[in-house]
Amino acid sequence: HVAALLLAGSGVLLLSMFRLATIPPGFNAEGLMYASFDDRALQFQERPAMTDALLERLRTHPAFTEVTMAEIPVSGNFDGHVLVEAGLSGMSPATPVMGFRVRPDYFAMTGILLREGRLFGDADRAGAPAAIVSERLARLHWPGLSGIGQRFRLYPTSDWLTIVGVVNDVRTLA
User: Fold this and answer.
1) pTM to 2 decimal places
2) From CA 81, how far away is CA 89, in angstroms rounded?
3) What pLDDT is recorded for position 164?
């Protein structure tokens, strides 16, 4: 009886793993290579110049056709809570989220589709803090409304982020 129970449990586990593996992640990982580096030794103000220089060096390397920098979904470590402007959310005032800092070319390279608004541009680096959110997040916080132009922050003391774009949902963990 124990062997039959273990066999049945193993079959359910394998079926569950197969189903998880066949769910589309929401981005195209084919041909992408991921590398990481630790920039904690750098002063915060030094990081943009260093990452720009690193990207330029990688772009000239013959092994790569495109290069971008991001905290990609499989490694995201930028967690916060969506705190929306009062009275606008259909959800609790502090919904936990996982966010990622990305460069303007990230969405095109990964095949993440724009559903509404626009993608980041180079001007967004120096301008007012902008955000691109998933369809699910926009639907949960602003049901029946456009996410474009809505504002939220990730921490009570952080800057307000204005949504400029909404993209398809991306699976990040499992």
Assistant:
1) 0.67
2) 13
3) 95
